[in-house]
Amino acid sequence: MKDTFLIIFLVFMSIWVNLSIFYPRLRGRWKKSRRAPGQLSAIGFALAWNSLAVTACGKFLSTKIFNWMKPGLLLIFVSGLVICIIGYFYDHSSGRK
After folding, report:
1. CB neighbour burial string for 35-60, b if at least 16 within 10 angstroms, e if fewer
2. Can you give the pLDDT at residue 93?
3. ∠68-65-10 over CA atoms, to 5°?
4. Whole-angstrom distance, CA of residue 54 vs CA of residue 74
5. Residue 64, Cβ neighbours under 10 Å: how many?
6. Close Cβ partners of 56 (under 8 Å, ≥ 6 residues apart)
7. What is the pTM of this model?
8. Which phi-psi region, left, alpha or beta, contains residue 61 (left: φ > 0; alpha: ψ -120 to 50)?
9. How confident is the model at residue 71, as a pLDDT?
10. What is each CA distance from 62 to 50, 58, 67, in whole angstroms?
């Protein structure tokens, strides 16, 4: 039962973050700031959430296929976080001008 709620939550968040790339009103705010994340940060968030959602849905795949996909999903997750961090610094550096 917990797995079902986790999968539903991760798929919902994945859809939400993917929509926030194109609709800025759906984006949250950076912590301790009134500034919204930019599009680059939203893309990084989307990559990370998508890889988490696919990993959670991996129990529906065969173990052979899922074990083959794990390194790629980890790479997508880490690259999403790196893109998000780059977007964070880009958002804050462009606001100072």
Report:
1. ebbbebbbbbbbbbbbbbbbbbebee
2. 76
3. 90
4. 11
5. 8
6. 3, 6, 7, 10, 11
7. 0.80
8. beta
9. 93
10. 19, 8, 9
Number of Cβ within 10 Å of residue 74's Cβ equals: 12
Separation between Cα atoms, residue 19 and residue 42, nearest integer Å: 9
Spatial distance between the Cα atoms of 97 and 90, rounded to a whole number of angstroms: 12
pLDDT in tens, the chain (97 residues): 778 888 889 889 899 989 988 988 888 776 777 777 888 888 999 999 999 999 888 888 888 988 999 999 999 999 999 999 998 888 777 655 4
- For residue 23, what are its two tokens? 């609709």
H-assigned helices in 23-95: 39-56, 63-94
* Alpha carbons 9 and 56: distance in angstroms, whole number: 10
